[in-house]
Design a protein that fits this description.
alpha/beta; single chain; TIM Barrel; eight-stranded parallel sheet
Length: about 400
């Protein structure tokens, strides 16, 4: 058929139908030779989607963030949109390499009280965030790892700094124009929604140590903040879909290498009901949810499927996930997104990457329900020649019906 485009191709994949070719997705493509502007993991945002540089700017000049909020409330967003990388610029490399979907933001999360920017600030050339008394909150290491010590320690901190204002247009003011642009560009935007996965956001906000103490000692508080996040994210999903968005990105890292971070029982008690409610709402509105979870997911996979998420990304191989086993067991229940390994792209050869993609096409893509992607994103450590081999294998063999013996 000659009327396939990225929007139709992605929808077919989410519906586990057979498109014309295997769709491709990456959140970001950060190889310096392709993308000299974005420093990728070295320039990463925090759980609030603000980088250390943003937080330091708003700390030094609180009126800037207040001015942004008020301008958006008045509908004066033209100047603000200019300082946010456009979907055209963010997706250019994706389009150069025939990607069908990329990650984008719906707006600026309106989740923080003004006091936050008085008390938290950036340090050490944008690599660190500190809080009251100089306490270390967030650090970006030289190899791009993000050490999350937690912004808050207590329920009182939550009350002091958080204001989840879902109705504020700042949360979703980019959606309508983004969708229009992307339809012209023929690439699908998937919009991140703050709070809808609960667990990862709370890990970033409180840090692992404080969060797990609260999970054990103050269950009522955790239940109350999950409800607040749920109410906020439900409003955001509705606003995004009302403004033309269709695909929602839920970030919810649940695993380490070889094991889950939390037990199935803890996931079932605190987080599964809210995620299920969110997915039900998105489906009611005609949208789709893709959950991102780094780490080992096998233990929690039955519960994840029962929440109703439409797709799971990235099925990280290095963490111990077997994408072929998942496809065989659960491929009729949700769409699989992944999983060309970052270690292979960073340290392997072009031939090894080419052959791994063929392996995915043969064993995961063949009967649909698969969007090919890496096991995280195309980080700046991935070799350009390996990335090109990954792309070439899909171009050579990724058309349906898949037959890797041809060509």
């Amino acid at each position: 058929m000659n009327d396939w485009n990225s929007f139709r191709r992605i929808e077919a994949a989410f519906n586990k139908e057979i498109p014309d070719k295997v769709p491709k997705y990456e959140g970001t493509i950060e190889i310096p030779d392709l993308n000299p502007i974005i420093r990728g993991q070295e320039d990463h945002g925090t759980v609030f989607l603000f980088t250390p540089q943003h937080i330091d700017l708003f700390h030094k000049n609180p009126s800037i963030f207040l001015g942004i909020k008020k301008s958006i409330e008045k509908g004066k967003t033209k100047g603000i949109k200019r300082i946010i990388p456009s979907p055209e610029s963010i997706s250019k490399i994706h389009r150069d390499y025939n990607y069908d979907m990329f990650g984008y933001v719906a707006g600026i999360p309106m989740v923080l009280k003004d006091q936050f920017f008085n008390d938290f600030y950036g340090d050490e050339d944008g690599k660190v965030i500190r809080g009251p008394g100089g306490r270390l909150v967030f650090r970006i290491s030289p190899d791009g790892a993000h050490t999350r010590h937690g912004f808050f320690r207590t329920p009182e901190d939550w009350e002091k700094y958080i204001d989840l204002n879902g109705e504020h247009p700042g949360n979703f003011f980019l959606v309508e124009d983004t969708v229009k642009s992307c339809k012209d560009l023929d690439i699908v935007p998937i919009f991140s929604v703050f709070g809808c996965g609960f667990f990862e956001e709370l890990c970033g906000i409180f840090g692992f140590e404080a969060l797990f103490k609260l999970l054990v000692k103050d269950k009522t508080f955790i239940e109350s903040v999950v409800k607040e996040l749920s109410d906020f994210s439900l409003i955001l999903a509705e606003k995004i879909i009302e403004n033309g968005g269709q695909y929602i990105y839920m970030t919810c890292d649940l695993g380490y290498k070889g094991r889950s971070i939390i037990s199935p029982r803890m996931f079932q008690k605190f987080f599964k009901p809210g995620i299920t409610k969110f997915c039900n709402k998105v489906h009611e509105l005609g949208g789709y949810v893709m959950m991102h979870s780094c780490g080992y997911v096998m233990e929690l996979l039955p519960d994840i499927i029962e929440t109703g998420v439409d797709a799971l990304h990235p099925i990280e191989k290095a963490a111990g996930n077997d994408i072929v086993e998942i496809k065989q067991k659960y491929g009729k229940k949700f769409t699989i997104v992944g999983n060309v390994p970052i270690p292979l792209l960073s340290h392997g050869t072009p031939e090894e990457n080419y052959n791994y993609v063929i392996y995915l096409l043969e064993n995961v893509s063949k009967d649909g329900g698969h969007i090919i992607s890496t096991s995280h994103s195309v980080t700046q450590w991935c070799k350009l020649e390996n990335f090109k081999a990954y792309h070439k294998a899909i171009e050579d063999y990724g058309k349906y019906p898949i037959n890797t013996e041809e060509n």
